[in-house]
Amino acid sequence: MDISPLQYLLAILAGIVAGIINTLAGSGSAVTLPMLIFLGLDPVSANATNRIGVIVQNVVGIAAFARGGRMQLRAEKDGKHLPENILDADSLRFGLWLTAAGLPGSLIGAYVATLLDKDTMNLAIGSMLVVVLITIFFNPTKWLRERSEVRKERPELLVLILFFAIGIYGGFIQAGVGVFLVTALVLGVGYTIVHANAVKLIFVLALNVVALATFIWLAVEINLWMGALMAVGQSIGAWAAVRFAVTVKDANRWVRYLLIVVVIYSILRFFGLLDLIFGLF
């Protein structure tokens, strides 16, 4: 596949936008997936190729959180509280349990992605995002909590099943998985929205490694050049987004606003309403 200079530019710009959205809120693949299809990839190939940029972006995001001292890898011996913008070791360990639950789900979802009808899935995704949008407006105090309230013991079975299900969805199609993850981590587990985004980076990285390996195993065509272009843009976007999340005052509030915008956009897109609106002009 020949790539023109304009396609290079479009791929990188789409990657930057998606990197920012994915890192702070989720559903950045609602930007990159249509762009990959617009640039000539079929939907299945675009779904697989999209994972390259997501993987690189999340590696950059995790590294940025760690270098900024926002992730504590070892628990404090005296049990003292850390500053509210640092993810403590116990909360991080809890997130790793959730990630492990999502991995087998990702493998299943990636396999199903090569079998199911795209239009049916778009309808299901749009319906789920409507539920997510309602939850964002329903309980704003939990979205804006200043300190994570995560239990120190291992997750309950129902919580692990929930994240296994999110893993299935994320393996099937990346678009929207960050929204579901942040919602589950904030409302269901008790993280602040900034801490939830840190755990989300780890979860999404792991499930996309599994999904990409599954696509390769199933011999799905992957465009490495286009994936690499998206990865460059998404890495830039992820770095900028993490800087915002850990340095800007009231980051929780601004990320929530962004999340609302992204969810509304995604609902319009997955229901086909965005194309309908653009068709009127």
Which stretches are poorly predicted, pLDDT < 50 over at least 5 residues?
A: 73-79
Going by helix content, strand content and strand pairing, the class is mainly alpha
The biggest beta sheet reads: none
Average pLDDT reading: 78
Tell me the Rg in angstroms: 18 Å
Please write the string of helix (H) and strand (E) elements: HHHHHHHHHHHH
N- and C-termini, Cα separation: 32 Å
* Percent of residues in helices: over 70%
What's the total number of strands?
A: 0
Oligomeric category: single chain
Task: Specify the number of helices.
Answer: 12
GO cellular component, one term: plasma membrane
Pfam family, one: TauE
Protein name: Probable membrane transporter protein
Organism: Caldilineaceae bacterium SB0661_bin_32
Textual characterization of the structure:
- The protein is an all-alpha fold and 281 residues long.
- It has one domain (5-278).
- The chain contains twelve helices and no strands.
- Helix 4 crosses helix 7, helix 5 (118-138) runs antiparallel to helix 11 (251-270) and helix 7 (157-172) packs across helix 9.
- The longest helix has 25 residues, at 43-67.
- The two termini are 32 Å apart.
